Amino acid sequence: ELPQRSAADIAPGPVTGITARKRERGRFLIAIAGVPAFTLSEETLFRAGLQIGDELDPAAITRLLADDDVARSTEAALHFLSYRARSEQEVRDRLKRGDFSPDAIDATIVRLNQWRYLDDADFARRWVESRARGKPRGQRLLQQELRQKGIDAETSKQAIAEADLDEVAAATELARKRLSTMAGEDPAAIRRKIGAYLARRGYGFDVARKALERATGEQVDDEESTDQ
Fold first, then answer.
1. Which helix (H) or strand (E) segment is 17 a member of?
2. Which residue(s) pair with 188 in the sheet?
3. Could you tell me the pTM of the whole model?
């Protein structure tokens, strides 16, 4: 297969061939002066209106390859987004691993935002809702996870506030599940372990204490509801 080369490696001249690639659906081999030069996506070819006989100088070749980099970057981003919603930062990170140019990545992000494929506020809401349904955790851990996804603090806080999470109820359910696996252990040790577990799941001191009291039916000392 013809490797994608830089514009500096391609001699200018007239376009003598535009051939669909059998092994690369949606891509076309461009020949210049009878020599296979580079491939372009169908989108790039259509936008450029390239035809046999057109003269390509270095500037035109550079422009075509840059436009094609954006087209390939966009295609890769859409494929990545087809599995689930992603934050803008996640898409940027994936495209960087694909060796697309910074300019192509920026252009792709602009496109995706215009097409409404990227919406960090919506992503944050979906993330919080998904966690609440399947893997409950406290606000602190939710904010940490969203920060790792590239979501800014204000957007994260708003998404969590809108979710109106009942942290105590969720933490109590987690405590009861963990309690059911610890029969026979020392009650004080059980409370400390569950308190530490809830702390790791992002629940604050007051929430952990209330959850422990509900789950065990006993009053909990302060030191038993935190991971000391």
1. strand 13-20
2. none
3. 0.76
